[in-house]
Amino acid sequence: MNRHARSRTTVYAAGALALLAAATGCTSDGGSGAASAALVPASGSPASGSPVTAAPSPSRSAGPTPTASPTGGGPAAGDAAAWAKWHLTPLPPAPPAPADKPVKLARTGPVPVFSEVKTSDKVVFVTIDDGAEKDPKFVEMLTELKVPVSMFLTRDIVKDDYGYFKRLQALGNHVHNHTVDHAQMSKVPPEKQKSEICDAQAALTQQYGTPPLLFRPPYGDGANTPALNTSVQQCGPRAVVLWRESMQIHDMQYQAADKKLRPGDIVLAHFRGPKDLKGETMTQMFGELLARIQEQGFAVARLEDYIEAPAA
Predict the structure, then answer these.
(1) What is the pTM for the complete model shown?
(2) Count of the separate structural domains present in the chain
(3) If 0-12 CB within 10 Å is exposed, 13-18 middle and 19+ buried, where does residue 35 land?
(4) Which residue positions does the secretion signal occupy (predicted)?
(5) pLDDT at 253 over 70
(6) How far apart are CA 289 and CA 23, in angstroms?
(7) Please, are residues 218 and 229 in contact by the beta-carbon 8 Å criterion?
(8) What is the pLDDT of residues 17-53, one digit of tens each?
């Protein structure tokens, strides 16, 4: 039995399978690609250690309204039998969404860039990029486990089956912008950057009914450049979201030297299947991700529950 199997509670050990996953990170250098640590100004100046948010907005929030969990608190954590079915130990339940959102977005002006959220809650946020894999078993998994995710979709990768992601959206998961065709933003001129973001924004809004609030550049590339920030502003998203950890084959790749999760970290995964995961499935990869989170005692919260969208 490998070290991952030993880490699971013995109540499920008899039925556990070693879950192998290989996630090809959306990074150009094999790393996380997120140069930002915490909320950093759009100008790309070094982080000061405390998040920098956009100008405070009025208390009434427009934009996506997070779907409430059946229990009325944070996202529900599916029952033990459901977790046992997927050979996993249940995660702790997420706390109720904070009334005072730690990330406050403004309607106009430069957008903040962040890879973590300032919170004392022992939670992390799972984000999933691209959209190449459309495994119905993954919809089943999220339905049963009730783990919230935020989806950063690439238009040309998902347009052959927009409906698949509507099923995930119906579970309360939000759709965000990840460009038209996954261009490396620092390698294209400003006009191309703008079309990559604006055209994806229009298509995703039409298909999913709500304008994406957040944007993630492929590979995390160009996130802190003035040109990209201007394009994001012009196209509609109100923040650029990076990440602190990315899911790899059996484990996460960490930016922190001690290789530990911290409250408020944003975790990157991808919609990937056997073709990209050396024969393993999306559900196996995601199971490994949840196991790594559970081992460190964290819950998974909904990212949008910690963000105050700008007033209309």
Answers:
(1) 0.79
(2) 1
(3) middle
(4) 1-28
(5) yes
(6) 10
(7) no
(8) 333 333 344 543 333 344 333 333 332 323 333 333 3
Within a 13 Å sphere around the CA of 241, how many CA atoms are in the beta-carbon half? 32
Per-residue b/e over 230-254, b at no fewer than 16 CB within 10 Å? bbbbebbbbbbbbbbbbbbebbbbb
Q: Which domain holds residue 211?
A: 3-308
The CA angle 191-196-202, to the nearest 5 degrees, is 115
Check residue 48 and give left, alpha or beta (phi > 0: left; psi -120 to 50: alpha): alpha
Of 305, 31, 308, the closest CA to residue 150 belongs to 305
Tokens 């079309």 locate to 195
Mean pLDDT calculated for residue range 269-296: 95
For residue 50, what are its two tokens? 């405390």
**Average pLDDT for residues 223-245, to the nearest whole number?**
98
Choose among 95, 98, 161, 154: nearest CA to 123: 95
| DSSP character string of the chain | --HHHHHS-GGGGGG----------S-SSSS------SSB-TT-PPP-SS---PPP--SS--SPPPPPPTTSSSS----HHHHHHTT-PPPPPPPPPPSS-SEE--SSSPPPEESB---SSSEEEEEEEE-----HHHHHHHHHH----EEEE-HHHHGGGHHHHHHHHTTTPEEEE--SS---GGGS-HHHHHHHHHHHHHHHHHHHSS---EE--GGGTTTT-HHHHHHHHHHS--EEE--SEEE-SSSEEESSTT----TTBEEEEE---TTTTTT--HHHHHHHHHHHHHHTT-EE--GGGGEEPPP-
Please give the structure tokens belonging to residue 261: 């999760």
Tokens of 89: 């130990």
CA distance linking residue 49 with residue 53, whole number of Å: 13
CATH number at residue 271: 3.20.20.370
